[in-house]
Design a protein that fits this description.
The chain has 324 residues and is of the alpha+beta class. Helix content is 24%, strand content 31%. The protein contains 9 helices and 21 strands. It has helices at residues 46-56, 74-82, 93-100, 134-139, 183-191, 210-213, 216-225, 292-305, 312-318, and strands spanning 12-14, 18-20, 26-28, 31-33, 39-40, 61-62, 70-71, 86-90, 110-114, 123-129, 148-153, 157-162, 172-177, 198-203, 206-208, 230-239, 242-243, 251-256, 260-262, 268-270, 278-290. Strands 10, 11, 12, 13, 14, 15, 16, 17, 18 and 21 form a 10-stranded mixed sheet that branches. A 4-stranded antiparallel sheet has the order 1-4-5-7, with no helix packed on it. Helix 8 runs antiparallel to helix 9. The chain is globular, with a radius of gyration of 20 Å.
């Protein structure tokens, strides 16, 4: 197995972790995913594991199987359940504590529910673009949100409402400020324009399936219940239409409004409690459309902005087609 059967990350590595099951049995696992945290036996088969987990996630509760070739703590279970459009609730105080202090040594047990129809937190949509991209961005706005903020890379201008067919008056607002080589500052300016407690941010060359977007409010509500402030989404990088090997390329773009980004390039949310205040959702992926020429130039430009942080090695990985 090259990639994780849960999140598809190419981050399987040797593990010394153990899980304790409800019957008192304690098991050691040979491998762990460095992205979602699932534990695996050394000879686990991806297709069999995926089928077994899919069945286990179909009912009203998740009960761990001590004989399965994989294991999950509650933090990883929350991630895995989102792939099937499901959420989790801890069964007890021990479970709630486990979510706040991953990765726990206790095998996951939880209540399962469908994200569709669940409690929700409204989510704003934020978009970064350049002036010549604005018309295309406005034409492609999704229907799952009632609050859209756009920041243009241009001379400073305060937010103004723009009329967009299908949206109520005042729903869509456009502001402007120069990017000036600081992506975190641009995202933070966009965060401040959110009218709702949570915001999803996208760039002009990115899109997100509207059906997946309609589940974001339920994910935000699950995050609030678990003291989470940032949610990462998988991103598919398509170079001239070809899916790149850099996948899932998790982008932490669904954040509470009070979360700020750090880093002039390859910016990420700053979380006082670290990664424990975040989780990954697998229910949908951001599609990122790039050209080969853009990929080849991007790392050089980023390196010039922030020496040592441009990730020039990433360009080669982006130009390599996806491998299972």
């Amino acid at each position: 197995m090259r990639r994780c059967f849960v999140c598809a990350a190419d981050m399987l590595e040797p593990s010394g972790r153990n899980l304790t099951f409800s019957d008192g049995r304690r098991r050691a696992f040979a491998l762990a995913c460095g992205s979602c945290g699932v534990l695996l036996d050394g000879q686990a088969d991806a297709a069999r594991c995926r089928a077994h987990l899919t069945e286990a996630l179909a009912g009203p509760t998740f009960v761990p199987d001590g004989l399965a070739p994989y294991g999950l703590d509650l933090f990883t279970l929350r991630i895995a359940a989102t792939r099937l459009g499901r959420g989790i609730r801890p069964l007890d105080a021990e479970g709630r504590a486990g979510l706040l202090h991953p990765h726990a040594a206790q095998a996951a047990r939880a209540v399962l529910y469908d994200l569709d129809g669940a409690e929700t937190q409204p989510v704003s949509l934020g978009l970064l673009c350049r002036p010549f991209e604005l018309d295309e961005v406005l034409a492609g706005l999704p229907d799952w949100t009632d609050d859209v903020a756009i920041v243009l890379d241009a001379e400073p201008a305060p937010p103004r409402a723009v009329a967009v067919s299908g949206f109520a008056e005042g729903t869509v607002r456009v502001a402007a400020r120069p990017l000036a080589g600081d992506f975190a500052a641009q995202r933070n300016a966009l965060q401040r324009l959110a009218r709702h407690r949570w915001m999803l941010q996208l760039d002009a060359d990115e899109s997100f399936d509207p059906a997946a977007g309609r589940r974001l409010p339920a994910l935000a509500a699950m995050a609030e219940a678990g003291a989470v402030r940032s949610i990462g989404l998988a991103r598919e990088n398509r170079i001239d239409g070809v899916l790149a090997d850099v996948f899932p390329d998790v982008q932490y773009r669904l954040n509470r409004r009070d979360v700020t980004y750090a880093g002039r390039v390859h910016e990420r949310p700053w979380l006082a409690g670290g990664w424990r205040e975040s989780f990954i959702t697998l229910h949908g992926a951001i599609e990122h459309r790039l050209s080969r020429a853009h990929v080849e130039a991007r790392s050089r430009r980023y390196e010039a902005i922030a020496p040592g942080r441009g990730r020039p090695e990433e360009a080669q990985a982006l130009l390599r087609p996806y491998r299972d």
